[in-house]
Each structure stands twice: as structure tokens, then as C-alpha cells.
Design a protein that fits this description.
binds zinc ion, 11 strands, alpha+beta, four-stranded antiparallel β-sheet, globular, 11 helices, 259 residues, 19% strand, 3 domains
């Protein structure tokens, strides 16, 4: 279990450990997208006050932050994003490592004086110009996943009026970034072989779901091991927390290696 306070909405969320049911969801999903992220939250996250929650309405910053907390709970705080050196003739492996705690702390929101709350719930008003905006949500991310110009589509959903000059658009987007900093960012590293600067793009949703999914695929073998060894039903095995299921499965493997 882990308790998390979301930086933008201030919601208090309780996360529980993944069980086999969630591993099946992850293993059988066709894409590591926001739809899967929301489906996972429906299963393992709840508001600390017990109220019902539609995770689609979370801002993308809160959604990505929550996914990073799930990653922290399951695999720990240290993230390693590996890439290859882009320098011509080098191509060495470069490890970019960081702490989730420090990353989330670095991208904390900071209120700005140029913006105030608009009358419409969830919307903000630029004080100096007649522009209102709201923060992109998980539902927006789902909606724009397959449109030809997602950036334009997102602006049309979130900014009124949406046909702004480049300068005004920049002002609004800077305000949005201050209120809800993006957690999708380039990370900098140095190639250990040639010293070249290396950049790797970090997307918390993609990273967390992929990592969870890589482990989730062992669910089929583990259900098979536990079912044949203990004659437990599939449903009973899928209700076990992931760590405990893996412990049992490992003991069965050890026993079979010794036999
Ligand atoms: Zn290099």
C-alpha cells in the first residue's frame, strides 16, 4: 500500500499492490497507452476518503505522477533509462539513472500571478488578456491518440479562443507549464566512452506500463506452476499479491531443479 498526494488536484490517493488480475490486464493489453493506465488505476487506486473517482478527469501531470508512484511502489525509486550514444562511430550504451522522488520534486507546480481561476470549474483566466484555458486531462490524451494533429486538437480543447498568435499561445502554454509541469521530459546524460552529450526522452506512462508489462507476462507460467503444485484455482491465484505469487512460484522452481 502507498499513500500519494497528487501535486495538481491535491487529491489523496491510496495505491495497493498489483495482483494477478492486474498482471493479466497488462499482459493482454495491445498498447501501453492512457486507456490501459486508466484501466489499471480503476483496479489498484482509490481516493483516500473512499469517494468514487473517474481517473480520466485527472490532469496528465497528476496521471503521470501517479504512474511514477506505482513504478516506485513496485520496482523502487531508482529509474534507469538506457540509450545509445548518437556520436558517429561510437554507439556505446549510455545509462541515464535518476530518483523518482527527486524527479517529481523537481517538477513541482508553482502558482503564478498572471493567472487566476475562471468562473467555469477547472478553467483558468489569463489576467492581462481575454484568454481562458484548462489543463489537459487523461481523457484528452485518450481522445487525441489517433488524430492527425494532436497538438492542434489539444489546443482547441483546452484554450479559448484557440486561434491565438504565436506569442499569446506561448504565454498561455508557459502558464500551463507553471501550473502543471509536464513530467514527459528529455533527460541528459554523458557518454562514458566519448564524452558526448546524450539525451533520452522520458515518458512516465510509456516507461511504467512497459516495465510492468515485461514482468506481467510471467503470470501464465506462475499460474501454471501454482495450479499444478497446490491445485489452487486460477481465480484464487490471480487474487494473490504479485510478490507473494512470485515467491511461491520461485520455491516450486527451486524444488523442481533439485528433484
Ligand atoms: Zn559516445
Amino acid at each position: 500500500m502507498m499513500n500519494v498526494r497528487l501535486p495538481i488536484s491535491g487529491l489523496e490517493v491510496t495505491l495497493r499492490q498489483l495482483r494477478g488480475v492486474e498482471d493479466v490486464l497488462l499482459a493482454e493489453a495491445t498498447r501501453c497507452d492512457t486507456y490501459l493506465a486508466v484501466a489499471l488505476l480503476d483496479k489498484i487506486a482509490r481516493l483516500a476518503n473512499g469517494a468514487a473517482m473517474q481517473w480520466e478527469i485527472l490532469s496528465v501531470t497528476d496521471l503521470d505522477g501517479l504512474l511514477l508512484r506505482i513504478r516506485q511502489m513496485v520496482f523502487g525509486d531508482r529509474v534507469r533509462a538506457d540509450t545509445h550514444c548518437p556520436a558517429i562511430g561510437c554507439n556505446s550504451k549510455v545509462e541515464v539513472a535518476f530518483s523518482i522522488e527527486e524527479y517529481v520534486d523537481y517538477y513541482q507546480p508553482h502558482p503564478i500571478v498572471e493567472v487566476e481561476s475562471a468562473p467555469e470549474s477547472g478553467w483558468f483566466q489569463m489576467k492581462a488578456v481575454p484568454i481562458v484555458f484548462r489543463l489537459p486531462t487523461a481523457a484528452d490524451r485518450i481522445a487525441i491518440a489517433f488524430v492527425p494533429d494532436p497538438v492542434r486538437e489539444l489546443r482547441q480543447c483546452c484554450i479559448r479562443p484557440s486561434d491565438l498568435s504565436v506569442q499569446l499561445l506561448q504565454q498561455v502554454e508557459e502558464a500551463m507549464e507553471a501550473i502543471a509541469p509536464s513530467l514527459c521530459n528529455p533527460l541528459q546524460g554523458i557518454c562514458p566512452e566519448c564524452g558526448a552529450a546524450v539525451e533520452v526522452y522520458f515518458d512516465p506512462q510509456q516507461f511504467t506500463l512497459l516495465e510492468l508489462r515485461q514482468q506481467a507476462v510471467s503470470i501464465y507460467e506462475e499460474v501454471h506452476l501454482l495450479a499444478t503444485q497446490y491445485q489452487w484455482t486460477e481465480a484464487a491465484i490471480l487474487r494473490l499479491p504479485r510478490d507473494r505469487r512470485r515467491q511461491y512460484a520461485e520455491r516450486i522452481r527451486q524444488q523442481r531443479r533439485l528433484a
